[in-house]
Design brief:
43% helix, binds adenosine-5'-triphosphate, P-loop_NTPase, 7-stranded mixed sheet, 691 residues, helicase, alpha/beta, ATP-binding domain-containing protein
């Protein structure tokens, strides 16, 4: 039933009623199609099974083709049905009336999650359609959109926004800038669902520009905490899939995400937008693909756990831009350092060393092994052309073997070690155990190996998304560029670096991607104004502009000792369980301290722990580290170790900022002993009186 009292526009109530009927009818038809195709499929299968011995091979083949066809059509009609079901819940969220320059009357366009066509009338436009851009980009007045046939100029005469849930209109508003803000606030003040969700009805202008950017080959998005980078990257993918249906499908897109939990957290958005799920993987999995059977490597350490100085020095050095340029220089010199040709003689056939060297040099740009193989081909072809008497000449493989023996270093592992000698810093290469690389060596090794043996390139991936860009090193990008020579969307925030040992900046990324388009986002949507003002007092991100959504001010609570702190956390968990929020994050600085806290709390509270090994994100109470909480969000956050011991350096400041900006609605900091001086005392609450 429609509640018309909250809808100031009778025409909209009538329109929705009409749309609901049409959707209902279309859905019935779609259901019937699905059932019919299902019946046909089962009948064909049965017929083939029952008559297997009797049908002649030609007929069998025809039947199999038919079966495949029915299967494909069936899958398509299921998709149509599913989209209609989603539309039926919420058919559209906006209407724009647009009058083209050459027209006398405006046309209304309803915008929703998907296109809905009914008896040749286009009743709902997909949010990604060119005309839908009007809604995101303009207020009433002069406006335009870019259609496939060129720019259409005109006037936007009306803009309305709706919230329709289960086919019922919750509100309808004539839109202006203020109303848009109000709707955004309503959306943001919801408690979080289990996973990240689509934001199509409230995409902001600056976000829309990024989503609809089709020109940039590589787009780098630097955005403050909560600015919607991840959401936008996912919407951008959905947009590109829609716009380039023929050239790009979900299997052509790969998302590189920092860990499995984050991958799970974002996995909902693209299917919610009606596209197939996207393949997600991490840097370790990529390395596995390249190095399987070649060499092992240890996992990445928790960057926040203390390590010995030599280890830090190694990791730090290998994360710098300088390191990549040194590797590049080595790679440039490599052919001459490595390949010392001698005359190749077979009977009366001879290729002298200078000729061999010239051929080998001609193939610069290829990995050394491939150059050798190409040179062996040249020698073979030369001998063949000189072989007028049809004598025996060596085979290509034999020649290649001889060329290989002219290499001063025979394999990529020995070469990697030799690189550090060449550098005059052999101490920078340490193996934790036999045939195992330290994590910091994995990508440098792959980079050198690419120059020596080559690298497996992904032919399938046509668009790569890299999230949390600040957590990857220049050499990792160098390898990535070789593995994925395709357009990229790279996003992150250099204000949220998690690794204290990394030494590079956004400027360095500009050097790595000189052709890329760089955009910045400074408006922050996730947290209340109060939480963001607090976070800014921790780390003054000058450009950060919190959205004006108000809530409870963050509190810092002093606890007499650890026991009291635990009692306070448990009390907060009980309050949470009795309240309306859906997710509570208890965040600690390191993975180790998160595991210890989990041990204590899980004895009498229902909590889950997220570790680097976890693979999914759930609602309820989650205990985790800053490293693992990154990219996620919770209705409430308790930062359980806000004392001086944990947070005192400039680097800790950035960690504290990451932790605080995970909270959407409520934030509490607890400490015992000395409070961290990185937070302003103006937020202090009186020492606790426990009840
Ligand atoms: N236009 C919008 N409308 C509604 N919600 C939005 C909008 N933009 C962002 N959000 C919400 O803000 C929150 C933060 O978004 P997201 O996680 O994409 O930001 P981020 O920049 O990747 O954050 P961080 O770097 O802090 O992890 C999410 O809940 C998202 O749904």
């Amino acid at each position: 039933m429609m509640d018309n009292s909250s809808i100031p526009f009778p025409d909209e109530a009538a329109h929705l009623e009409d749309m609901n009927k049409k959707l209902e009818y279309a859905l019935e038809r779609a259901e019937k199609d699905v059932e019919k195709l299902d019946r046909e499929y089962k009948a064909s299968k049965r017929y083939m099974a029952e008559n297997r011995g009797e049908i002649d091979p030609h007929e069998m083949f025809q039947n199999e083709l038919l079966l495949k066809q029915t299967d494909r059509t069936g899958a398509f009609s299921v998709e149509v049905r599913n989209r209609l079901m989603k539309l039926k819940e919420s058919p559209y969220f906006a209407r724009v009336d647009f009058c083209g320059e050459d027209e006398t009357e405006e046309d209304p366009f309803y915008i929703g999650k998907f296109t809905f066509k009914y008896e040749n009338d286009l009743l709902i436009y997909d949010w990604r359609a060119p005309v839908s851009g009007l809604f995101y980009d303009f207020e009433t007045g002069p406006a335009f959109y870019d259609s496939p046939s060129g720019r259409i100029e005109g006037r936007l005469t009306r803009k309305r926004q709706f919230k329709i849930k289960d086919g019922v209109m919750e509100y309808a508003l004539e839109s202006s800038a203020n109303v848009q803000d109000e709707i955004l606030q309503r959306e943001l003040s919801h408690t979080s669902d289990e996973k990240m969700k689509s934001i199509i009805s409230t995409i902001q202008k600056e976000q829309n520009r990024i989503i609809r950017n089709e020109k940039a080959e590589t787009l780098v998005i630097q955005g403050v905490a909560g600015s919607g980078k991840t959401s936008i990257a996912l919407h951008r993918i959905a947009f590109l899939l829609y716009r380039h249906k023929r050239q790009l499908s979900a299997r052509n897109v790969t998302i590189l995400s920092p860990n499995k939990v984050f991958g799970d957290y974002i996995s909902n958005v693209i299917p919610e937008l009606g596209e197939e799920p996207i393949y997600e993987l991490g840097f370790a999995e990529l390395a596995d693909i390249q190095l399987e059977g070649i060499i092992g490597f240890e996992k990445e350490h928790d960057p926040l756990e203390a390590r010995e100085e030599a280890w830090i020095q190694r990791a730090r050095y290998k994360s710098s831009m300088k390191f990549v340029s040194e590797m590049d220089e080595y790679i440039r010199q490599l052919p001459d350092l490595l390949f010392v040709p001698t005359d190749y003689i077979f009977g009366r056939f001879k290729a002298d060393r200078e000729w061999i060297r010239t051929r080998f040099r001609a193939y610069s740009g290829y990995p050394v092994k491939q150059r050798l193989s190409m040179t062996a081909d040249d020698i073979y072809e030369r001998f063949r052309s000189e072989n007028i008497m049809e004598e025996d000449i060596p085979r290509r493989g034999t020649i290649l073997k001889s060329l290989n023996s002219m290499l001063t270093i025979k394999n990529s592992f020995a070469l990697y070690r030799a690189f550090y000698k060449w550098l005059g810093r052999p101490e920078l290469f340490v193996m934790p155990s036999k045939k195992t690389l330290e994590w910091a060596d994995v990508y440098p090794f792959m980079y050198l190996r690419a120059a020596f043996d080559g690298i497996k390139k992904s032919g399938v991936t046509k668009h790569l998304v890299v999230d949390e860009m600040q957590d990857y090193t220049p050499v990792q990008y160098a390898v990535l560029n070789q593995m994925f020579p395709c357009p990229k969307t790279i996003l992150g925030d250099f204000g949220q670096s998690i690794n204290p040992h990394y030494r590079y900046s956004l400027e360095d990324l500009r050097t790595i991607y000189p052709e890329a388009e760089f955009v910045t986002l400074s408006r922050s949507y996730r947290s209340t104004y109060e939480i963001m003002t607090f976070a800014k007092s921790v780390q003054n991100v000058v450009s950060l502009e919190p959205v004006e959504r108000h809530g409870r001010a963050p509190v810092i609570i002093s606890c007499a000792d650890e026991q009291e702190k635990i009692r306070e956390i448990k009390r907060k968990i009980r309050n949470f369980e009795n309240g309306g929020n859906v997710s509570l994050g208890v965040i600690l600085k390191t993975n180790r301290s998160a595991a210890q806290m989990y041990e204590i709390l899980s004895a009498d509270c229902n909590v889950s722990l997220i570790t680097p090994e976890s693979s999914s994100f759930q609602n309820g109470v989650t205990v985790t580290s800053i490293q693992m909480a990154k990219g996620l969000e919770f209705d409430e956050v308790i930062l359980a170790d806000a004392d001086h011991e944990n947070y005192r350096t400039e680097y800790d400041r950035s960690l504290l900022y990451i932790a605080c900006t995970r909270a959407m609605h409520e934030l509490t900091l607890l400490y015992s002993g000395k409070r961290t001086e990185l937070v302003s005392s103006s937020f202090l609450q009186r020492p606790l009186v426990l009840v």
